[in-house]
Amino acid sequence: MVTFSFVRDTNSIAAEAGLDGIYVIRTSVSQEELDDAKAVEAYKGLSVVERNFRNLKVIDLDLRPIYHYSENRVRAHVFLSMLALYVTWHMREALAPLMFRDEEIPERHDPVAPALRSDAAHSKDATKLGANGEAIHSFATLLTDLGTLTRNTGEFTQGIQIEQLSVPTPLQRRVFELIGSPIPTTIGGK
Length: 190
Prior knowledge:
Layout: H1 10-18, H2 36-60, H3 71-94, H4 119-127, H5 139-146, E1 151-155, E2 161-165, H6 170-179
Antiparallel strand pairs: 1-2
Helix pairs in contact: 2-3
């Protein structure tokens, strides 16, 4: 006959429960410059950087892994990746009205408490529409749509070439308006 028995290690369980919800963060910054709540927020902000870096490599720009063997190339690769992350961050900020993104994040009084979402963000999720009635997109779908804004070259007999820009869609016009840049109307800066 086979039997099974177990005993709960109540001392270990109590010790683990005593640490539930406790942050131990050590910083060299003075209390006047960075209070406890700001230190916790800064620490939590690192996860955002990690997520953005991963998204940049895998989702947003779909960069393939590159293996470098010299220090200068590694530094250059990290610099270019961070530059792309910076540009992507600014684009996400500017294009927030067109995206599933909370533009009015409610202030948290407790940095450990779960993040809150605004009513506008809940409305975007429910209706799939922005404040102006525009369809809401992900960053990837906006990039895909922008990818259709093309320059076409038609080549005819006797070597005649005609270049033509595609006509921007209303969404593409809105994107360029939000990023504060004119849509190119000429080819090659002529």
